[in-house]
Amino acid sequence: MRLLSLLLGLCIAVLLTVNSSAEAACSGSGTTWNCTAGTTATDVSSTLSSASDGATLTFAAGSYSWTSGINFSMSKGVTLVCASAGGCTVTGSGLIGMNGSCSGTSTKLYRVSGFVFSGRGTSLWFYGPSACKLSNVRIDHNTFTSPPSGSTLMYFGENSSVDNFIYGVADHNTVNSSGSINFSQCLNGDNNNPPVGTLGSDKNFFYEDNTFNISAMTNNGVGLTDTWGGCSQVFRYNKVYNNRIIVHGSAHAWGPINTEVYKNYVEINNASDGYVQYGNRLVHHQGSGTYMIFDNAFRATAGQTGGPVVVQHSGSQYSRGNDTICNGTASIDGNRSPSNIYYGYPCYRGPGRDMDRTLSPMYAWQNRWNNTGGIVTLDCQNYASFTCTAHVVENRDYYNAVSASAQTSPASPFNGTIGVGFGTLANRPATCTTGSETGGGVGYFATDQGARGTLYRCSAANTWVTHYTPYTYPHPLVAGGTGGGAISPPPAPANLTVQ
């Protein structure tokens, strides 16, 4: 009897093990699948091979150890979503996305939503060996907790390939980290043909309505986002604690052609760096392409004596992979005379210039210190002695708001001669000053035109033209376009609008 009982016990244990393994898998058909807690990355990959284009895999609340990669297909769009946002905890080092498998163009939706990525470094990566172009990537309502300090949580593209252009949105995510991390890097090789017309368009990757809770800035060289090689980004409606928004310029594989940063709250309350803790370079653009930065609120609890918004141009340019300097000796630059005044200006892909070196100025307005309301301007900081006297000049290559206050009349505080004004369209000055070449001119942001306002530029003497309109908010992928709406969208960040 004792032997029989022992055998029965062993059989039951084996059956329980088999059933437990069998239950940890995905079931369904076509576009609808359900995955139980504990489903492995291998099980998910197997399901994706059987699922139809546009499938949604819904994961039950529980723990998941994904030690191998989950690679999406160019031929099938897919959504991975936790049944209850924040209820699915993922550990392990397996990457999700297209880890070298992206090739060609796809308008299909690729969405990862509602997971908690715990203790992981990189969790998502989309790239291919060349010509990887994705239009609809959405990363939303995820929590990244306790990542290794200095790690990058998401990659789009990589820096030895060209034509990796991934568009979409990362929204309503939360990062909880004890030290500095890089939320996302958009990388590309030495790309000579980035998309045109990206300003105010969907040809960007968007970061919106995210919260970045960094306990302490442990490395001021690690920013939340970074862009190389013609990538363009829009960073908007985010809350940032103890981190910076960094954009590399033309010295890094050509640099971004378009950058927009608006309606964010950035606070530094625990920084080891004696420079950053006072609010210096909280948004740091090392210089390339056009740049719109407006309606951001900054706070530095150690004292607000720094310049939070900076453009800096090293003068280093890539010419067919060979590092050359914009100083009047490289044929790829404009090289105006005299060379001891212009030092190669206009620099190819320099700050405030498009791919053809046509003037495309940078504009800054409505940026302020959150607790005082004091104005924050876009500042040029010298890398070389001639950077801010030859390459990046105010009221030519960039324009600043003349006041922290909105327009009270068509003549005050902005009168149309220099800088930027903002307020109602009725208070826009009737006269205005254009730039010295095509593409330049003072700006006026009419807060009551369009859904989110419209920036007008003085294209000729006393002639205003529409220059920039912020892209649809929320992003169409968030607001119910491809991929549906949010699981449980939190309110937009507070205290970000100048009254």
Features:
single chain, about 500 residues, mainly beta, 13-stranded mixed beta sheet, 10-stranded parallel beta sheet, 39 strands, about 10% helix, globular, disordered N terminus, disordered C terminus
Commentary on this structure:
The protein has one domain. The protein is globular. The chain has about 500 residues and is mainly beta. Strand 30 (about 315-320) and strand 31 (about 320-325) form a beta hairpin. The longest helix has 22 residues, at about 1-25. A 13-stranded mixed sheet has the order 1-2-3-6-9-12-15-18-21-24-27-32-35, with helices on one face. Residues about 1-20 and about 480-499 have low confidence and may be disordered.
Helix and strand arrangement:
Blueprint: H1 2-23, E1 26-29, E2 32-35, H2 41-50, E3 55-59, E4 62-65, E5 70-71, E6 78-82, E7 88-91, E8 96-99, E9 104-113, E10 115-118, E11 124-127, E12 132-140, E13 143-145, E14 152-156, E15 164-171, E16 174-177, E17 182-186, E18 205-208, E19 211-214, E20 225-227, E21 233-236, E22 239-241, E23 245-247, E24 258-262, E25 265-268, E26 283-285, E27 290-294, E28 297-300, E29 309-311, E30 316-319, E31 322-325, H3 339-342, E32 362-365, E33 368-369, E34 378-380, H4 387-391, E35 398-400, E36 420-423, E37 443-446, E38 454-460, E39 463-468
